[in-house]
Amino acid sequence: ILHMRKEFTIDHIETIADDVLALCVPRTSGATVLALTGDLGAGKTTITQSIGKKLGVTENMISPTFVIMKHYRLKTSDYRLLVHIDAYRLDSSAEMKTLGFDTLIADPENLIVIEWPERIADILPTDCIRVSLEHLEENKRALIVE
Length: 146
Ligand code: ADP
Ligand code: MG
What we know:
Blueprint: E1 4-9, H1 13-23, E2 32-37, H2 44-54, E3 69-73, E4 81-86, H3 94-98, H4 101-106, E5 110-115, E6 129-137, E7 140-145
Parallel strand pairs: 2-5, 2-6, 4-5
Antiparallel strand pairs: 1-7, 3-4, 6-7
Bound molecules: adenosine-5'-diphosphate and magnesium ion (MG).
């Protein structure tokens, strides 16, 4: 899929999560990185939670805004680890190194979902999967892949 634009309400979040997961094809050279852009409240965390559920995460996935990064072990997926990053509070990508990002990104068994990827653009793989969310109305969002 090269281009996609889908408007959705929260009750269709699972279908949207399926669409995004279909784009997350494992790479042999390292982790699969999903860069999720969109304004505050666009639904980046919500879709990541839905993706987590589909990959078998049973624990509550809280927003990593304050901790920057959260890990979830996966048992029922091709990926072994889901890494959820919120780069909003970072001043530079150098801070990611102290969180072990280099090791995480080198492992093909990891799926790394990044909110506010523009904050750490210089350390993202060039072939990362880029998805945007747009806030249309109170309960309506758009998923955009270009
Ligand atoms: P972000 O992580 O992008 O800041 P969140 O996922 O934390 O955004 O918040 C999105 C908020 O919008 C949630 O409270 C969610 O319930 C609500 N919401 C309403 N409609 C939708 C929708 N169609 N898709 C995603 N979230 C929605
Ligand atoms: Mg968020």
